[in-house]
From TrEMBL:
PANTHER family: TENEURIN AND N-ACETYLGLUCOSAMINE-1-PHOSPHODIESTER ALPHA-N-ACETYLGLUCOSAMINIDASE (PTHR11219), TENEURIN-M (PTHR11219:SF72). It holds the Pfam family TEN_YD-shell. One of its GO terms (biological process) is motor neuron axon guidance. Residues 611-632 have a biased composition (Basic residues). This is Tox-GHH domain-containing protein. Residues 598-632 are annotated as: Disordered. It comes from Henosepilachna vigintioctopunctata.
Amino acid sequence: MQDTSKQYFTITDFDDRGRLKTQLINIKSFDVFRLEVEYDTRNRIKVQKLMIGRSQYQDKISYNSDGHVLEVIGSNNWKYVYDENGNVISIMKDKEKISLGYDSGDRVVQYGDVEFASYDNRGFVVRRGEQKYRYNPRGQLIHAFEREKFQTWYFYDDRGRLISWNDDKGNVTQYFYSNPNTPNLVTHVHFPKTSKTFRCLYDARHVIISIETPEQRFYVGTDQNGSPLALFDINGNIIKEIRRTPFGNVALDTNPDFYLPVDFHGGILDPNTKLLYINNRLYDPVVGQWMTPAWERLSTKLNSPTDVFIYRYMNNDPINKNIVIDYMTDMESWLKAYGFNTENIMGSEYIGRMIYQPKATIQSKQLAPEFGVISGLECIANKIKEKFSSLDFVPKPLLKVEPKTRNLLPRVSYRRSVFGEGVLISRMDDRALISVVEGVNGVMQDVVTSVFNSSFFLNVHFSIHDQDVFYFVKDNVLKIRDDLDELRRLGGLFNVSTHEITDHGNNAPVKELRLHNPDAVVIIKYGADPQQETHKILRHAHKRAVERAWEIEKQLVAAGFQGRGEWTEEEKEELISHGDVDGYEGIDIHSIHKYPQLADDPGNVAFQRDSKRKRRKSGARKRRNHRHLVTS
């Protein structure tokens, strides 16, 4: 590959197995960068040779029996010692040794002789050295600061990609992803303060090769994982050279004033915190672990037993990032081995990939196969397209062949459904519709069908104290006795209790049946209006959300953050001492009547000054009634 002026070209050579072998950058007839890699019998890099300008480096890498990086010998000598769980407990560079300490959840809490990291109840790193962090409900970092050094705020798009950050000094950096075929690659970086824009160019492997500024173009030399190692100008002069530890921490930067947005493994470097955004997750290269756990990925991408260590980065092997084991079992896999991709040949395939369609899918082959819903017309179209794109002359056998898979999800985390197997409760026109599988759990099916079928199934569902809570309404109050007799047939599966709820302003008390088990609570209300009950439940849920939001705000302000509100110093003291600020109320950001699933979410609460109330002048506290804001 070369530029139009033929002053620059790069050659990438692969071995007979399609693995990267050598990479060369030539500028004005001089070789300025060269990378050579050798592999062992387990498809891992064992030798890495590097030439930057006139300097040459060579590193030999060894691994332990678990596949973790054990030792790097060469221009930089690194050695890692692991415990029985695979955690790095000591790092040795030449004669220097650094010890790491872990808690019971295999999370780093100590680095050297100092307490390094602290975690909140969600498992997010909220303190790292002298830096403190705050996250939004999606687990994304939104505020970081270090006292008397920096404060930074972060912003994301609907896909979870970092789109901008700004600090307390007025600096703003914006990231753009303009290539729909590679939606996670940064193509432009804009600096509004200086009115400058950087453009990032990538090769066919999605590895950065060039950065264009308003003044000139720079060429980037990277390692096999897309980590920039050197930056050259158009004359071949070295502008910036970077040396890192195997886990990505910068050990040498010859030009730190030149901000290179793409960093270790192609991630985005945060210049203030020195953290990295890799695949929309925050990574700490100092200790080599993720900043936040991703439990939802564990249930869909479980490929090996070590994936249960959700903070560990690449199973402690950051050298071999792109190892993909493909077994040649069909024509399509063989074509990919020779560089052909039938999906790219079919125009509708790559056009369809440009359209963002968020969905949750199970991507691991070791987990249970997922059966989605597809229309008959789409199924016919897919079959015709499959036949048209097939290059095989041998007809496909009618006998269906599938790889044997086991459902491994229960071994990771398992919670049985509320009424066991073979029972499905659906909502049709606000009514409960019971569907059962014959021959499975017969007594439970009879009881659930008798009690819940055709009752009002309220569109509100919460999780309180790790229990799922569901609400049903029946208009006939006399059915409570019959339902109670039916539910007693379930024996010890549920604790059944009756309650009589008196609502102020309503003379007629509402009778309730409550079913409890360790995983769920099912509440059946009798003689009530479904719409009124929904509003009442949402009102109580909103009150819980406001109380929880004040608790979180108090914790944030006490930790040194500004919090959600623009509090004065006097209001901060009042918040820390009393738990709230007089004259302010909690309101919904999004209407809970339009989005009932947000009713008890403290992240959906904003604090607003109540103009109708005056601030108290005495120290006496009065109980505040939180006004509920209803929007249409």
